[in-house]
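Quick one: structure tokens for this chain, please?
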Amino acid sequence: MADAESLAQPAVERLSEDETLRGDLTDDGFGPLLEWAANAAIAYATNLKSNKPEEAMDAYAARLKGVIQAVVAAAEAGKIEDAAALLDFEAGGKATAQKELAGLGLKTGEADDNAVKIAGVLAKALTQPAETAPTDPRPPATTSSPAVGNGNPSAKTPAVAVGDTKDMAKTEISKPSSETVASKNQPSVSRAKIGKEPKSIRRINSSRNTSKK
């Protein structure tokens, strides 16, 4: 935590020392907003994974500054015109926060009270866990089966039309691979696995060669 606070400290100091950010807010209205910004900066620094953490922290501080400006403008106007601008920071409860911001009921002429209300919603969103993304109601897309003849043992033999005896004789029926034979609990006679022909096959070949001579 100490390292995160040290990393966030320069950004928090710049925000707190910038008097132009508070607008017409007094300490009562700007204090809670600045406290939220400090907690947001520390939370970001705690989870930050970057080769250049200082530069990343400066960029995030600019985002927090934009949120403060948007909050002050909304508090002074007594209405929220762009809720997304108030939620431009790393938080898990943004969807809930957006609904809460819409129902705050801000009032004109009560800038400090409005700022306190908005800061409370932002602080709550900062502590909320990440919301689950909605699931796609559509069925998953089916993948096409691999083409026949690519050496895939699961490839199916093309169907042959009934009665087409000429093409049937020419149709090449793919032989099951050694893996397919093994899957049927039958012993495999693949040369790739055995390494050489079984003795029974060698005897048959030998007798055939003798008869030819």
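The first helix runs from residue 2 to 17.
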